[in-house]
Design goal:
Blueprint: E1 16-22, E2 29-33, E3 40-45, E4 55-59, E5 70-74, E6 85-98, E7 101-102, E8 105-110, H1 129-141, E9 151-157, H2 159-175
Parallel strand pairs: 5-8
Antiparallel strand pairs: 1-4, 1-6, 2-3, 4-5, 6-7, 6-8, 6-9
């Protein structure tokens, strides 16, 4: 199986696939799926002694503002292994820019069929405030020790904004004929 064959989802933007690249609480190593081969590569060892606060991945067959697939943070009670695909629904989006431009992060949970204990989470405001602050703090500082890199966190927006990001990513992918 190639991760290149995974589609964006069953009912985009309400039910979408996320390919996990980095498990939550993993060591500070950034993994990325190679677009050509579908293999998971080590992108870099992060200079900061920080762990990703959520599972981190992307929606296949999307292109975000930075030219990469739409980034997604997936809240789960356990870490997901790199390369696994999980069906998700959006709670909101953390709007950000970095040295390369727009770099928003969609916040999601697995669909209710997969993880019913999170059915009460419908929007960003339903997530524990500490969790949201940890996510924001991570992204404000995870590039601090990398020369020439920076991040500006602009704040949280709700599920409608997240769905707009997803649909724009699908449209960008389709328009590029990728």
């Amino acid at each position: 199986m190639s991760l290149n064959n995974v589609n964006a989802g069953r009912d985009v933007p309400n039910d979408f696939n996320v390919v996990i690249e980095i498990p939550m609480n993993a060591d500070p190593i950034k993994y990325e799926v190679d677009k050509e081969s579908g293999a998971i590569f080590v992108d870099r060892f992060m200079g900061t002694a920080m762990h990703y606060p959520c599972n981190y991945g992307y929606i296949p067959n999307t292109i975000a503002d930075d030219g990469d697939p739409c980034d997604v943070l997936v809240i789960t009670p356990f870490a997901l292994i790199p390369g696994v695909v999980v069906r998700c629904r959006a709670l909101g989006v953390l709007k950000m820019t970095d040295e390369a431009g727009g770099d928003s992060k969609i916040l999601a949970v697995p669909v209710e069929k997969i993880l019913p204990i999170y059915s009460h989470l419908q929007k960003v405001e339903d997530v524990q405030e500490l969790t949201l602050r940890q996510i924001q703090h991570f992204f404000e500082h995870y590039k601090d020790l990398e020369k020439g890199k920076w991040v500006k966190v602009e704040g949280w927006e709700g599920p409608d904004a997240a769905k707009e990001e997803i649909l724009a990513g699908v449209k960008n992918h389709e328009s590029k004929g990728a």
